[in-house]
Design a protein that fits this description.
The protein is an alpha/beta fold and about 525 residues long. It has a single domain, classed as Alkaline Phosphatase, subunit A, CATH 3.40.720.10. The protein is built from 15 helices and 17 strands. α7 packs parallel to α10. This is Alkaline phosphatase family protein.
């Protein structure tokens, strides 16, 4: 195969990476390797995930389905085995997709015994991927084995190795998150995944499809040396939030309970204290640690990309970098990913297409069009000459990559969040809801964000006047028309994108009609 043709596919996802956290986007965090990739590819600045948390968002990415269609709505909710996905479709083109990292795909329990070990974990693998090595927040045997071989003793709870020690010098002044975890940068889970990707690229000779998944900057927010000290917390801005938690809680009943939950000790993974009410210097240090973890991932990505160049594969490899979802990072007094705020759902997307047709967009950014995680699968399939299944809710980004404007495109983005609590039934009882009523759906364009709850009050934000989403206008009589208009747009979206099933087919006396058409 000649250069500048797609032979290989490298799909990289990070976990919990905010869209604004790229130096090429003007942020203080240093991401030189992703900046170089963007300069040689195309960056999408208005890219959003489809749902939360990790498992459901990855399912939308890998199946090109909205949550209302795939129904994998929480970590642990089974995924219907009948759906196709990017790995299964790539196999039809002769690829053997391999996974380094995780997909958090719970198994379909139908036809399985209750004692099947796959039904004891949400950290399953999306069907169609061959496993190179699993490293997730539930399972990391290969990585832990390497740590032991390096003489790094694991604690009884093995994942506690990722948490920094309270007695690390400087933590009292700078904050607990200044402490590095129990390993150096050469032995981190980030370096481990990069090592696996580098080894694969060096030795595999056939056309390949690799899905590399980095767990960071997912918490715990403890970066290995020297990344723990890379950003001075004094230089880190505090989160944007209301003057008090009580004032923030006035916005909505859901936010009120979320902020109550946030104050519980240990609510934020790896941090045993109440992260909501920390003193400012601790908050700044946690944010600094988050940025350090991002720079660590960027450095390791640089190694992977350099290996592609050293082995002569860079100009035959389609490279995609994105994240599953984002991170509140203290904004609105919240940590983690939840709900309707952009901080949880606005994510990065960079695509480097080696074809000459993509030269027209190299180094540019897509600023005027909204893109969604469901667009990744159709894009990859389109670029390798595969038919995009009618299951897909997303649309190929090929036109943008080739420097063209689409004839039709979405004017807004949508995402969903299912906050049911099947284990404890806590939110159902608190709000007197059924589990199926514990759902919010968001529509967001350049002007407004409208949040529709199945059985709780709605929210409306004027993003031009209130980009930080502080003032709910849904009850303002002067905005009733706007609420109605966006509620109607959301209804139209749901009608247009409801699962097709086989509705695009019809059996007739002349034979089967099978129409292939776009939703836009």
């Amino acid at each position: 195969m000649a250069k500048n043709e797609i032979r290989n596919i490298l799909l990289i996802t990070a976990d919990q990476w905010r869209a604004d956290c790229l130096s090429s986007a003007g942020h203080m965090v240093q991401t030189p390797n992703l900046d170089k990739l963007a300069a040689d590819g195309l960056a999408f600045r208005k890219h959003f995930t489809q749902c939360l948390p990790c498992g459901p968002s990855r399912t939308s990415l890998l199946t090109s389905m909205y949550a209302m269609n795939h129904r994998h709505v929480q970590n642990g909710t089974p995924l219907d085995a009948n759906f196709t996905n990017i790995a299964k479709e790539a196999r039809k083109k002769g690829y053997d997709p391999i996974l380094y990292g995780y997909t958090d795909t719970p198994a379909d329990p139908r036809g399985r015994a209750e004692s099947d070990p796959d039904l004891l974990t949400y950290a399953g693998v999306m069907p169609g991927f061959r496993v190179g090595s699993l490293v997730s927040e539930e399972l990391a045997i290969d990585w832990f084995g390497q740590l032991e071989r390096e003489g790094i003793s694991l604690p009884e709870n093995q994942f506690d190795i990722t948490i920094g020690s309270h007695d690390y010098p400087g933590t009292k002044a700078r904050g607990h998150s200044y402490a590095p975890p129990g390993y150096g940068k050469e032995n981190s889970d980030t370096a481990f995944i990069a090592d696996k990707l580098v080894d694969f690229i060096k030795v595999y000779r056939q056309p390949w499809f690799v899905h590399g998944v980095f767990l960071r900057p997912h918490p715990p927010l403890f970066a290995p040396e020297p990344y723990n000290a890379m950003y001075d917390p004094a230089d880190v801005a505090l989160p944007h939030r209301a003057e008090t938690v009580a004032k923030e809680q006035e916005q909505h009943p859901y936010l009120e309970q979320a902020l109550e939950k946030m104050a519980e000790s240990g609510n934020y993974m790896g941090h045993e204290y109440n992260v909501r009410d920390l003193p400012d210097h601790e908050i700044q240090q946690m944010r600094a640690a988050y940025y350090g973890l991002i720079s660590e991932v960027d450095d390791q990505l640089g190694r992977v990309i350099q290996t592609l160049k050293d082995t002569g594969q860079y100009d035959n490899t389609l490279i995609i970098f994105t994240s599953d979802h984002a991170e509140q990072l203290g904004d609105h007094w919240l940590w983690g990913k939840l709900g309707y705020f952009d901080e949880s759902c606005h994510i990065p997307l960079i695509i480097r297409d080696p074809r000459k047709e993509a030269d027209a967009s190299r180094g540019q950014t897509v600023e005027s069009h909204f893109t969604e995680a469901v667009d990744i699968m159709p894009t990859v399939l389109d670029l390798i000459g595969s038919t995009v299944p009618m299951q897909c809710d997303g649309h190929s980004l090929r036109c943008f990559i080739e420097g063209k404007q689409p004839e039709k495109w979405r004017s807004e983005v949508h995402w969903e969040y299912d906050f049911r609590d099947l284990k404890n039934f806590s939110l159902e009882q608190k709000f007197d809801l059924t589990s199926d009523q514990c759902v919010m759906t968001i529509i967001r364009d350049d002007c407004y964000k409208y949040v529709h709850f199945t059985a709780l009050p709605p929210l409306l934000f004027d993003l031009k006047k209130d980009p930080e989403e502080s003032v709910n206008l849904a009850k303002d009589p002067g905005h009733f028309e706007v609420v109605l208009r966006y509620a109607q747009k959301m209804l139209s979206w749901r009608q247009n994108y409801a699962a097709r099933g086989m509705s695009h087919m019809q059996i007739t006396t002349q034979g089967m009609i099978n129409r292939q058409y776009s939703r836009i």
